Amino acid sequence: MSAGQHATGEKGGILRSFLSLLIMIAFVLGLSWALRTYVFTAYEIPSGSMEETIMTGDMVFAEKVSYYFRDPQPGDIVTFSDPEIPGRTLIKRCIATAGQTIDIDGDGFLYIDGVAQTETYTHGKPTLPLTNSTITFPYTVPSGYIWVMGDNRTNSQDSRYFGAVPASSVTGRGVLVYWPVPDFGLLE
Question: Residues 97, 181: one domain?
């Protein structure tokens, strides 16, 4: 084998390795984009509206697959597009769906369709109407909408403030706190 043939073989091997690396990088980037777009998204929690369930600064995975097959249900922790600030995502608990009637009494109890709710995740904090809101009770959730509230009822601007949100604005279901490690666990 001559020196020229050896150099050509090395160049072909280097080029082949470089192309393989580029293809692998493109595949990994494409796969991560597809997973983030269609399967799950990670969020950092910026406020205390879901405390004690999710703490400020926690990192949460929200999965998207289940809502391809069903609508959000009461009790689901959902991520959705902020109805007031475009491009911002909020996380709250779905409390009621289309056709259900929400009512709040003066003692801080929540009623859905006339039934008092037992909400252990609020840790006994009262549910009161927000004074800076135009929402009045009783309130019937319109078709195609859901009613969302933070678990920290005394520190959450939620549907009591901005009203029901379109079910079409839901981007995922919060399922797992993955950071910090002491908070690691499934969301309920």
Answer: yes
**Number of compact structural domains in the chain:** 2
Statement to judge: residues 111 and 181 lie in one domain = yes
Based on the residue annotation, tell me whether 49 is a catalytic residue of this protein.
yes
Could you tell me how far CA 61 lies from the centroid of its own chain?
Answer: 8
Its pTM surpasses 0.85: no
Confidence of residue 130 (pLDDT cuts 50, 70, 90): confident
Q: CA-CA distance, 145 to 131, in Å (whole number)?
A: 23
- Cβ(184)–Cβ(155) under 8 Å? no
DSSP secondary structure letters along 89-100: EEEEEEEEETT-
Query: Do residue 34 and residue 55 come from a single domain?
Result: no
Asked if residue 82 and residue 7 are part of one domain, the reply reads: no
Over range 137-154, report the average pLDDT: 95
For residue 119, give the nearest of 131, 128, 110 by alpha carbon. 110
User: Is the predicted pLDDT of residue 143 greater than 90, yes or no?
Assistant: yes
> How do residues 37-47 score in pLDDT, each as one tens digit?
776 788 888 88
Q: Which of 49, 64, 125, 156 is catalytic?
A: 49
